[in-house]
Backbone:
């Protein structure tokens, strides 16, 4: 159904003239005597609804069904006609609910049987209906604004459902002519207006209703084209429940609905708890839910399917769920002639809305697919499944219903924020345990969990610094690190090499975020100041570039930290080897830095103007290698290249030749350079 | 399907139609390949005859085209174009494609009929209809090359002013995650396997990593199996956590990735496509309005992960989620009247419920202009008053009389007493203060 089809706009025009106050002559017993009541009481006489009551009730039922299934974009305008037209609501979405309409109808009240019939006419309402169809709805307005110069492509079609008591077929023809004439006139008006739209197509549904038992003075007529703009159909219907049934059929036709009757629903109420009492419920829904029945011709229509004269419904059986693990859902079974059971639909409830799902009951085209463990990456056994689970929980979505604005005043799209966050959180995210050291260390968590944030608080920075000092302390105490020995021969790298790998990885993580904020940079500065590096000339130079004040800050922080170090994991303090020696070396490095000679170029090491390009290629380039390359280029511009580095690979191999000899391997092999 | 010794394309198409529907129903897209020498048969049952009688079909001998399932009909002619054009064969075959709503294509042989040219014709079909759908699955910087199977079909949004088929992006971008319990069982257009693939530098597929027993140890597939792949990581965590990943397929088009177990041992990464649009699942709200939990003032999932922001409640409740009055069937009206009566007999204990039900009936009667009902119920309440047993609480009589009087006033329809928003309130009596209200 196209959004701007005839069903976008429905105008109800209900006759409020004196004769509508007449009884429909169908009695309703309302005083039902209960069994154990005193004998001898005569029940009150049954009452009957007026033609007006029947009309209003049936049209409200039409609206109820429409609003329930299409809460948006299907609009009703309700008009009551007597000596004039009373338009009870507008096309705006907030006017589109039963409560509003009921209150407006109550204000109108039933027709006055003593009013002068000469003054009253349904024509007032029909004219108003055409007028209102020319009025633009908020959805049409939105679509026109969106299409700009192609605004004329937004359609304006509508339907007028007129419930009246006509005098004769010629009276009906007069009403049709009037509508056609009015459309013609109003389309002329609309052509010269920005606020009105010409009616392209109008479906007039005239319903003549009369008391039960009387002869109809008007004959039925199927849909007929009166002009390229107007079609009209006439239904002659007895009042009472016949009118309600007619409107029920019409709402199904107008909105492509179909009916399903659910049988065998167990009674929930206490008094029926232990009985097998059950009941049936008829549901209306979009007819797509029956598409399989309609195509296969295997439909189970209860009742006859004579052309629209009887209501068609498909019967499905309620299957009481045995377990509750599918939540607020229940499966529906299709009774088949063969006796075989087929679950064809599912009913589920979300936030008080009921949905009917069509389930596929035929063969799946994805039979026996290969397991994920048999495919690419399927043989890898040390994925960081738990860590990624944690990552997913942190990146869960939640609705933001109130609009939020960016600093520049533009509307912020929450989903874009979600993507941004994923981008930040994955800048450095090794997929397997053996590819990472820092994410296997509890001690790194306080830093790793906050460094990915868009902005840091002072407390976050402090926590990051504490984390770094803690790592320094661990190194000083020579704590073992959870370095993977996968792919290495022998015992793996030595302790100082392990720490070098760990520091490199931590640096990679932090560097990936330094452009987030100045506070992120402070974390990097702290890391660079504290991390262990061999006392090579090159390294001294790097540290020498640090501003003195920052060094002071770091030192002060170190002192702060010394007082607080009790917070750290005492377990890790155990089993430390060669403690004293390392401690000395480390202390010397830190103290050494402020006295280092000033570098020739005072440009800060970290350049904010040069963002790492977001890696889009599928090639095995890691973030680290990107950074290394960048730093290399930047550094090479500033000084004469260190002789050893000129011959190095990734600025590493040359420094650790002794390791290479000992382990018989390239140090980069276990470092991050090989990481992808 | 049995084979016969006479060319009868219609029977063949009917056979295909039945088999596909029996096996896969009416929703699964199916490609039908018709291989023919271009001869259409003779007499009854020939394609010429079928087409000539096409307009005279009844429901029982309906022509099998268009197929009652999404389809493409590919006609492979073992003849070259010139041969076909010398008769009306090609026209008839083209009619078939037209009858299938234009879904399909005719292939003919270039040059003389020989094995090489036939192979080349089928090669073209394979290129057109059987190329795998390759995409890149992305979650921030984590990426994996994948094949999506079956190929996602273009989707035409019916509600649009300009119905152009939407095609899914080859970049499948994860935007966030949602618990399975929250997304529940959403309606989907189609389901697809997401298979990680290994690509070489030229972008050609070198393997799916699926090991074949015949292949030697160092095959490309073996190597691919040992290289960490994001799909496997994602799948593992989705499975363990019971979550789905929401993936963006295009502008205003989303889907979800989840783990689906085939058996205890086998499970797979699957992708389901939602219907295109800003709000495919009403209980999640608009997709664009979903954002990261870190932007919320407090974690909407709770500190102990014990709550959820979903499902979203609809702005207006559906009629079945509220107490809407419908009297179209007499039983609806009778039930409402009975409710009032039942409560009337339990006055003063049920005073609140009595008035609540009374006011509900009053409102509906006023809206429907059904003033006779108000009079009728007033009469009934007055009768109830006369039937009260001696043991009845004195307040009961006062309340019944008061309620009846109020209904009678409303039934006059005068604005003073018949206001829709006006509610009949319990009569304040000397007893009402002491009688405990129980609902």
Residues:
């Amino acid at each position: 159904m196209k959004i701007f089809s005839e069903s976008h706009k429905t105008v109800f025009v209900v006759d409020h003239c004196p004769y509508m106050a007449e009884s429909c002559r169908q009695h309703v017993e309302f005083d039902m005597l209960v069994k154990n009541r005193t004998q001898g009481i005569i029940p009150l006489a049954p009452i009957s609804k007026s033609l007006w009551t029947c009309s209003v009730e049936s049209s409200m039922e039409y609206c109820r069904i429409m609003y329930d299934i299409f809460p948006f974009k299907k609009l009703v305008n309700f008009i009551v006609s007597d000596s004039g037209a009373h338009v009870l609501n507008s096309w705006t979405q907030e006017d589109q609910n039963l409560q509003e309409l009921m209150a407006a109808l109550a204000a109108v009240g039933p027709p006055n049987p003593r009013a002068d019939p000469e003054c009253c006419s349904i024509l007032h309402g029909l004219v108003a209906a055409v007028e209102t169809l020319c009025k633009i709805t908020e959805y049409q307005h939105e679509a026109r604004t969106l299409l700009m110069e192609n605004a004329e492509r937004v359609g304006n079609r509508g339907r007028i459902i007129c419930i009246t008591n006509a005098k004769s077929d010629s009276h009906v023809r007069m009403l049709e002519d009037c509508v056609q004439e009015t459309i013609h006139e109003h389309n002329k008006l609309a052509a010269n207006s920005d606020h009105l739209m010409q009616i392209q197509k109008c479906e007039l549904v005239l319903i003549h209703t009369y008391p039960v038992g009387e002869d109809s003075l008007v004959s039925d007529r199927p849909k007929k084209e009166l002009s390229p703009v107007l079609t009209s159909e006439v239904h002659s219907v007895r009042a009472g429940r016949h009118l309600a049934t007619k409107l029920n059929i019409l709402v199904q036709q107008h909105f492509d609905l179909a009916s399903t009757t659910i049988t065998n629903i167990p009674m929930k109420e206490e008094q029926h708890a232990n009985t097998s009492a059950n009941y049936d419920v008829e549901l209306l829904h979009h007819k797509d839910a029956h598409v399989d029945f309609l195509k296969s011709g295997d439909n189970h229509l209860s009742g006859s399917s004579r052309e629209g004269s009887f209501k068609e419904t498909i019967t499905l059986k309620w299957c009481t769920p045995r377990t509750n693990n599918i939540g607020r859902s229940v499966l529906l079974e299709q009774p088949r002639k063969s006796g075989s059971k087929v679950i064809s639909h599912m009913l589920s409830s979300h936030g008080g809305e009921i949905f009917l799902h069509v389930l596929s009951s035929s063969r799946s085209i994805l039979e026996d697919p290969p397991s994920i463990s048999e495919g690419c990456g399927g043989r890898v056994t040390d994925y960081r499944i738990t860590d990624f689970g944690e990552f997913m929980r942190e990146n869960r979505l939640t609705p933001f219903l109130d609009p939020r604005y960016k600093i520049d005043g533009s509307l912020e799209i929450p989903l874009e924020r979600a993507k941004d966050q994923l981008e930040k959180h994955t800048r450095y995210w090794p997929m397997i345990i053996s590819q990472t050291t820092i994410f296997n260390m509890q001690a790194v968590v306080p830093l790793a969990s906050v460094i990915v944030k868009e902005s840091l608080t002072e407390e976050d920075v402090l926590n990051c610094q504490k984390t770094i000092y803690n790592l320094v302390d661990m190194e000083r105490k020579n704590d073992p690190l959870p370095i993977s020995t996968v792919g290495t021969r022998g015992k793996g790298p030595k302790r100082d090499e392990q720490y070098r790998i760990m520091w490199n990885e931590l640096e990679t993580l932090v560097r990936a975020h330094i452009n987030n904020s100045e506070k992120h940079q402070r974390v990097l500065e702290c890391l660079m100041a504290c991390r262990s590096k061999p006392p090579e000339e090159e390294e001294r130079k790097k540290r020498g570039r640090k501003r003195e004040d920052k060094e002071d800050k770091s030192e002060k922080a170190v002192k702060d930290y010394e007082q607080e170090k009790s917070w750290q994991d005492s377990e890790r303090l155990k089993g430390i080897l060669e403690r004293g020696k390392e401690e000395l070396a480390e202390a010397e490095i830190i103290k050494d830095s402020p006295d280092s000679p000033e570098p020739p170029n005072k440009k800060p090491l970290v350049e904010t103007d040069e963002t790492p390009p977001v890696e889009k290629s599928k090639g095995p380039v890691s973030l680290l290698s990107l950074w290394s390359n960048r730093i290399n280029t930047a550094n090479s511009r500033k000084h004469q290249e260190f002789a050893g580095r000129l011959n190095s690979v990734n600025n590493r191999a040359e420094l650790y030749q002794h390791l290479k000899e000992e382990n018989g391997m390239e140090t980069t092999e276990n470092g991050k350079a090989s990481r992808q | 399907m049995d084979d016969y010794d006479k060319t009868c394309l219609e029977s063949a198409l009917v056979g295909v139609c039945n088999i596909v529907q029996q096996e896969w129903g009416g929703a699964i897209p199916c490609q039908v390949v018709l291989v023919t020498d271009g001869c259409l048969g003779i007499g009854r049952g020939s394609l010429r005859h079928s087409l000539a009688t096409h307009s005279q079909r009844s429901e029982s001998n309906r022509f099998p085209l268009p197929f009652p399932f999404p389809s493409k009909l590919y006609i492979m002619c073992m003849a070259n174009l010139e041969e076909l054009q010398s008769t009306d064969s090609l026209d008839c075959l083209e009619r078939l494609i037209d009858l299938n709503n234009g879904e399909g294509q005719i292939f003919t042989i270039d040059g003389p009929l020989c094995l090489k040219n036939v192979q080349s014709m089928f090669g073209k079909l394979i290129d057109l209809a059987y190329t795998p759908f390759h995409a890149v699955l992305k979650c921030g910087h984590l990426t994996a090359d994948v094949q999506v199977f079956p190929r996602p079909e273009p989707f035409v949004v019916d509600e649009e002013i300009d119905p152009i088929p939407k095609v899914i992006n080859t970049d499948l971008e994860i935007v966030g995650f949602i618990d399975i319990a929250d997304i529940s069982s959403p309606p989907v257009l189609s389901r697809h396997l997401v298979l990680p693939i290994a690509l070489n530098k030229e972008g050609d597929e070198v393997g799916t990593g699926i090991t074949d027993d015949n292949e030697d140890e160092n095959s490309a597939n073996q190597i691919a199996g040992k290289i960490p792949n994001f799909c496997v990581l994602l799948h593992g965590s989705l499975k363990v956590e019971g979550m789905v990943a929401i993936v963006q397929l295009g502008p205003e088009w989303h889907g979800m990735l989840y783990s689906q177990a085939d058996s205890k041992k086998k499970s797979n990464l699957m992708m389901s496509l939602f219907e295109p649009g800003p709000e495919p699942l009403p209980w999640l709200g608009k997709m664009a309005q979903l954002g990261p939990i870190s932007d919320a003032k407090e974690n909407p999932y709770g500190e102990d992960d014990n709550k959820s922001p979903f499902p979203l409640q609809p702005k207006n409740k559906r009629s079945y989620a509220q107490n809407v009055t419908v009297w179209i069937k007499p039983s609806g009206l009778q039930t409402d009247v009975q409710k009032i009566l039942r409560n009337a007999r339990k006055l003063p204990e049920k005073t609140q419920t009595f008035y609540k039900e009374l006011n509900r009936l009053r409102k509906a009667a006023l809206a429907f202009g059904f003033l006779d009902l108000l009079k009728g119920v007033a009469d009934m309440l007055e009768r109830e008053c006369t039937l009260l047993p001696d043991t009845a609480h004195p307040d009961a009589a006062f309340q019944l009389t008061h309620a009846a009087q109020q209904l009678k006033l409303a039934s006059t329809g005068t604005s003073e007493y018949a206001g829709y928003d006006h509610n009949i309130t319990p009569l304040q009596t000397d007893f009402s203060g002491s009688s405990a209200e129980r609902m």
In short: Residues 267 and 274 of chain A are 9 Å apart (CA to CA). The mean pLDDT of chain A is 79.
